[in-house]
Design a protein that fits this description.
The chain is mostly beta strands. Helix content is about 10%, strand content about 30%. The chain has one domain. A six-stranded antiparallel beta sheet has the order 1-12-3-10-6-5, covered by helices on one side. The radius of gyration is 16 Å and the shape is globular.
Length: about 200
């Protein structure tokens, strides 16, 4: 089913919660780090194929990099273009390796089984648009820094974005984009102070 694009305007991703926004082909969207410290887990799902999703594994294969930059076109698990990165005002380096936080992750970390998490946020956001996924695809972790050291180990570091930094994408096909203002207070990926913040998306046209 081809869905209409979102009305131009600004939408809030509440702290610890999720949001999904439909885009029409050619429509632009900015993901805004309003506080400068907030990681935003990001997904995209093309219309008309319930088994298709933005696949970071396929993007890394085709782009031959583990971080993506303006001008890169990101693809789904069937190698079809989904979105192109139009601009990035942040220092970049958005993580593509780390899984979305989940109930199981917080149990493993000793934080209990009722912790808000990105996996559940994705499920809830998709449900608002009548969509489901049987699993949680790996997210594009905007503003999250988890650099690989010496080609072997991963380091978790605080975000270096400034308040108002954004990543802008253009839809290559009709799709549903989904976001989670990551609730993680275990790793130092949301500024390290344990206080997730609101983020925003802005539909441009």
């Amino acid at each position: 089913m081809v869905q209409p694009g979102s009305i131009k305007g600004r939408y809030t991703i509440p702290a610890r919660q999720g949001l999904a926004v439909p885009l029409a082909a050619g429509q632009g969207l900015r993901v805004i780090n309003s506080s400068g410290t907030q990681v935003v887990d990001t997904w995209a799902f093309p219309d008309g194929d319930p088994a298709a999703f933005l696949s970071l594994e396929h993007c890394r294969e085709v782009l031959q990099r583990i971080v993506f930059e303006p001008g890169d076109t990101l693809i789904d698990n069937r190698y079809r273009p989904l979105v192109t990165i139009a601009a990035d005002t942040s220092p970049g380096g958005h993580d593509t390796l780390i899984a979305a936080c989940s109930r199981a992750m917080y149990v493993h970390a000793g934080a209990g089984d009722d912790h808000a998490n990105c996996a559940d946020n994705l499920t809830a956001a998709l449900a608002q648009h009548g969509r489901t996924m049987p699993f949680t695809p790996s997210p594009w972790n905007l503003f999250m820094l988890a650099p690989v050291k010496d080609g072997r180990t991963i380091d978790y570091v605080r975000p270096t974005s400034a308040p108002g930094d954004y990543v802008e994408v253009t839809a290559e096909t009709d799709c549903l984009m989904a976001f989670s203002a990551c609730p993680d207070d275990v790793y130092p990926t949301n500024g390290g102070d344990g206080t997730p913040q609101d983020a925003h998306v802005e539909v441009l046209m």
